[in-house]
Amino acid sequence: MNLSLISFENTSTVDIEGQSPNYPNHDPVMEQKLAFQDPSLGSIDCRLIATPNVSLLSGIIQLRQSVRLKTATPDNSINFPFMLEGSIVSHFYNFPKKQQLPQNSHNAIHLVHTEGEHYLPVGKLHTFHINVGSTYFYDNFISEDKITDRFKNGIATRNSTVASNQPGFIHHEMKNTIKHMLENPYQGAMKRMFLEIKSLELITMQIHQLCNLSLRPLPMGAKNKELAFGVKEFLEQQFLAAWTLEELARKFGTNIQTLKTSFKATFGMSIFSYYQQLRMEFAKHMLLEQKHPILEISEWLGYSHQNHFSTAFKKHFGFSPSATKPPR
Description:
With 328 residues, the chain is an alpha+beta fold. The chain folds into 2 domains: 2-215, Jelly Rolls (Sandwich); 224-317, Arc Repressor Mutant, subunit A (Orthogonal Bundle). It contains 10 helices and 15 strands. The chain has helices at residues 134-140, 146-157, 172-182, 188-215, 224-238, 245-251, 256-267, 271-288, 294-300, 306-317; strands at 2-7, 13-16, 30-38, 42-50, 54-63, 67-72, 77-85, 88-92, 99-101, 105-106, 109-111, 116-120, 123-133, 161-162, 168-169. Strands 3, 4, 5, 7, 10, 11, 13, 14 and 15 form a 9-stranded antiparallel β-sheet that branches. It has a 6-stranded antiparallel β-sheet with strand order 2-1-6-12-8-9, with no helix packed on it. Residues 5-23 and 216-222 have low confidence and may be disordered.
């Protein structure tokens, strides 16, 4: 894995030495530690573990300022990220939608080309990541669910795809499995067997949960108030992605009119107004407190041109994003 940190404050780039371990056939498990420390940026402490079939990364990141982390992992692979602490927004260059992973959540994504950037906020992040080669996944996972089918089809046609638009929840059993993988006492071939079996166990729990999420017609039944709270919670986790009313209605198994009416009756504002409020508050925080460039934020929010973002920002707050602080 290649890593580079990019500071938002001065746009300088810091390369972090480290490649995913290469495993010769006679060595069943390879490990490597990757550490980085900078007085102004913060610290990164990662542990990389690789067998011939899976690669694991456990990372604890402490940041004094927001950064972009540029990464590249093996192409045409399946990635299973778990965000144990903190949150992250990822933009893979060859994938259309940004992926937002809040604290205590997980997802899975097949990437044909894996280069990308990850927005890391100030504070502590703890992440665990499994990377599986496409051949190993194709040969060892049985097509009994639509996520596995989608990934296998993506491998065959070389098309990237994400398991779920809604991240899953990391439950206690998943956390225990991750803990056992990182603290296992085995060596040599037994260690490889243990790590690969536990990886399959964790991925199985993950895919099972994500399939159930996508099959759920409504968050908590058909009651309008519960529908509204479900949509609100979903938007709070996924506000950087572009959503239409049609997509939201389809996702929650209802029609557009019921969706709009339920939300407005529950919260006193339209879905679009709340969605826009989340995005603009995020932009304001990034501009006024984290000092991120306007162009950078407009790109994260999916605007095709910086001027379009500036117009929306001024309409919402009454002052332009170029102002260093709002008027008194």
